[in-house]
Amino acid sequence: MSKILSGIAGFFKGEGWSRYRKSFRYAFYVILHPFDGFWDLTHEKRGSMAVAHTIVILTVLTHIWDRRFTNFMLNNTRWSEFSIWLNTLGILVPLLIWVTANWCVTTLFDGKGRFYEIYMGTAYALTPYPLIGLPMILLSNVVTKEEGVFYTYFNTFALIWAGFLILCAVLMIHDYSLLKGIVVILASIVGMAVIMFVCLLFFSLISDAIMYLVSLYKELLFRIS
Question: Which H or E element spans position 46?
Fold first, then answer.
């Protein structure tokens, strides 16, 4: 236990914490200068997986807090029926599928990005969502229903901004032209659908196999008895 605590203390005092802070501040540069930012993020190694994980966690928390703490006039979520785990998976699973599909497609399209670089770039591209979403949660509780339209506008803008940044990340990480990048993104979306179909088919077959074995086991017990 003492070694773990000393290791954590050493991280915050050493170069690890300094690099983490620089990489976290760099996320703000990336969203304002996406082309230079995403190029340097991977090619100049200015990104950090720790910061990427942090942004993903903030994105998940923002999504959950938005459902929980947004003014009831702007939020139709029933908290009694709300599942934190399902909403967490609702962010993490599509993210993982997107990264996997994009990596598979870009491998066929001579992409230069590696799996972890695609994940890192996508995570940094999500920065506008918590950056705008968290203040909007607080703002929603001090505005009237008529003024709540700004809440919708800003959240929509955050999603559009994040989508644009994902496009820039694909272009810079894989060194694509605009047209090729758009084609790859569309192909990646199709790839996501294929992956989800295969996963659903696999789990369906596994479920059917388990049900068959259970019924067979019960039948054997019935005949033996």
Answer: none
Nearest to 162 by CA among 127, 203, 116: 127
Amino acid identity at 151:
Y
d(CA 56, CA 40): 20
Q: Which two tokens stand for residue 150?
A: 């700004």
**How is residue 168 written in tokens?**
């820039």
Give tens-digit pLDDT for 143-180.
Answer: 777 777 888 888 899 999 999 999 999 999 998 999 99
- Residue 171 has a pLDDT of 93
Cβ neighbours, 10 Å, residue 217: 10
DSSP alpha helix (H) spans, 44-177: 49-69, 84-108, 115-125, 128-139, 149-174
Total-model pTM? 0.84
For 19, 55, 161, 165, the CA distances from 61, given in Å and listed in that order, are 24, 10, 19, 20
Q: How many CB atoms lie within 10 A of CB 36?
A: 14
DSSP label at residue 143? S
Write the CB contacts of 90 (distance below 8 Å, at least 6 apart in sequence): 63
Phi, psi for 223 (deg, rounded to 5)? -75, -35
* pLDDT value at residue 13: 58
Confidence of residue 78 (pLDDT cuts 50, 70, 90): confident
Contact (Cβ atoms closer than 8 angstroms) between residue 172 and residue 35: yes
